[in-house]
Every structure is written in C-alpha cells, then in structure tokens.
From TrEMBL:
Coiled coil: none annotated. This is FAD-dependent oxidoreductase. Residues 14-406 form the Amine oxidase domain. InterPro entries: Amino_oxidase (IPR002937), FAD/NAD-bd_sf (IPR036188). PANTHER family: AMINE OXIDASE. It holds the Pfam family Amino_oxidase. It comes from the Bacteria.
Amino acid sequence: MPAEPDVVIVGGGLAGLAAARRLHRAGVSWRLLEDDGRLGGRVATDTIDGYLIDRGFQVLNTAYPRLGTLLDLATLDLGWFTPGVLVRRGEAVARLVNPLREPAGAAGTALADVGSLRDRLRFAALATGCATLPPGRLLDAPETTAEGALRRAGLSDAIIEELLRPFLSGVLVDRALETSSHVLAMVLRSFARGRVGVPAQGMGALPRAIAAPLPADLVELRTPVAEVGPHRVRTQPGELRCRAVLVAVDPPTAGTLLPALGRVRMHAYTTYYHATDTPPLDEPILLVDGDRRELVANTVVLSQAAPTYAPAGRHLVATSVVGPSAPPEPVVRAELARLYGRPTADWDHLTTVDVPAALPAAPPPQGRLRKPVALGGGLFVAGDHRDSPSIQGALASGWRAAGAVLAELRAQG
C-alpha cells in the first residue's frame, strides 16, 4: 500500500465505494478511510434475535442504471415485492397494481375506490411518460415541486391525499412533497421500468457486494478524519498527503469537512420492526393509509418478500414514519391494528430505528440533478446530495466524482 496514494477517499458508503471501484479499475493508487467499523454508510443491516433489521426500510430497484456497472444483481438473491400498493380507507382496503407487471390485477385497479377512474388514467399517463421519454427530456421540463407536478397532471385531491402523498412520502421522505418534480420524474421512471426487492441477506449485502472486488488492505475502518485540505487528509495518526481528496461521507459531515458546501438539510425517517407468528398480509405488498391521518407512511411484511428476514415460522413487519418527531411504539402498534384490520397486541416489538438524516432534501431548483463534484484545489465531493436523493444518486455521484478525479490526474500528467 503506497504511503502517499494518488487519491484518498473519505467515507465508505455507497458513493465512496462506487468511487473506489472506478479508481481501482483505472489503475490509480487510492486509499479509503471509513469512520465506522463497517462499510455501507446509511445502508446497513443488523441481526436481532435472528431477524434481519435494515437501517430503516429500504429497497433496491433494478432500474437504477449504476447498479449493473458495479455488481451482478443475481448474486444478491433478491426477494420481490408485489408491484403495487394497498390503500386502507375506512373499513375497506383497495388494491392497486402496475397492470404491465401484474395484468391479472388490472381490472381491480381500474375499479378501485381511490380517486376516480380519470385520476388513475391520468396518473398512468404521467408514469408512462416518465418511463418512456429520454431522461434529458424529463430533466429539461419546467420544474416545480412534486405536489405541483401531480396537480399539473390534473390529479384530484382525493388521489393525491389518499394514495400518492402517503406512498411518495415514504419514497422521498417528504410528507409535504416539496421535493423537485425532476426527482419525482426519476422516481416514477424507476418504478415503472424496474422491479423492487430486497437482498436475501438484507440491504447490507449491497455495499458488501460492491466492495467485494476491492483489495481489503486499501480500506481502513474505524479511521475518523478530522480535517481535509488541498492534497491532504488529517487523521489521529497524522497527515496523509495525496494528489486528490474525495469526500464521500454523509451530507452533514461533508458540510463540516467542506464548509464551502454549506448546510445540507436532511429529512428524518423512523422504522418500527415487529415480529409475529401470523403475517397480517399474505403477500409482499406495501400498505398505506388513505384516511389522511398522516402518521404511518407505509407498512409491509418484509418476510413475505424475503423469508430470510425472519426465523422459520415467524414474520417481520416493517412500519415507517416520516418526520423528526416519531410517535411512541404503542401509538404505532394501535395504527397497525387499524391498518391491517386485525389485533397486534401479541406482536413483539424488536426495535425502532431512527434515521435523523435519512435523505437530503431536494426542493426545486434541482435542474438536471447534477451538482458540481470538483471543488478545486484537489478537493472533490460525492454523495446523494450531489445527484438525486437515492441509492442511485449515491452510486452515480461516486462514479461521476471519480471520473472528475481521473480527468484532473491526467491533466496533471
């Protein structure tokens, strides 16, 4: 391992790992420093009493373009979710699915008592446009908020409040739907074009798979970085010199190490994990609250998608709430009884995972979703705050930042 590598990557989350993969492929010397004892950043999985507990409810979408560059998805043994959603309204539950993915459910979706048939046709047209138009066309469209885009598409209050706000709040971690319409367009595109699932060994399998081809001796865990500057990184053991520094830590820490970035506003997310002998649903489909109570964003029986998430004969339910003020678990448990329409008193509460900095806020203007990654003086930055707030955004930004590093190193000769 070189004493002074060409590049020091600060942070071993998805962005940092994607950057390391591109730099390694290019044959430049690099070293990755990670504060935590494991790689993955905000994408991680713990084990509690035999259950796989992700760091907040997360999923993988096969339509993310950068995934295929970095790994073979087949190696993750993905368990798939039903391509649709259940909506609780009063005493009834409506089932809406993507008819292209599940043709047998098309008739039920057309007749579902959520919004009007005109609403569903207009939303289908919006999603189809996002799926079929070139990304450049979508990102050059006039920009507004996500809610503004839904209303611009002619959708009624009923379908927005009963379906789209609860569903999208869990995806964007933004109950107000103040996120840019350009981000929304990319989200709808990925859902329309891809399949959604979770790895058999939990979401933490994703960073492990991306890191697998990298030499272990170039990655230093439990190595906090105190300061970065042009061509240098300071850790407790001392200063490390290099030709370029690529900061790929979480957005708040990036703002501390690189004050010129400014403060990155973050959205908070909390996931409650419960275990039960009897699953409240017989399929892996997201359930949202259409009664406008605005407490639970979504809930799902994770073990119906990937049985490995729970011990044999048991099931794992993940329930997510958006916002910084998470309610007490008994309040959520009572809401789950209403949503699922069955008692939850005998469910075991495994844990509650609070993620106060789950995703960076992305209000308009976001433009083409690509913020600068080259800061000058040999400093570079990557993370989902530089692209779209998503797994795809983190991977794409890391890959793009590494490309900028390589261009500068070539220019230096």
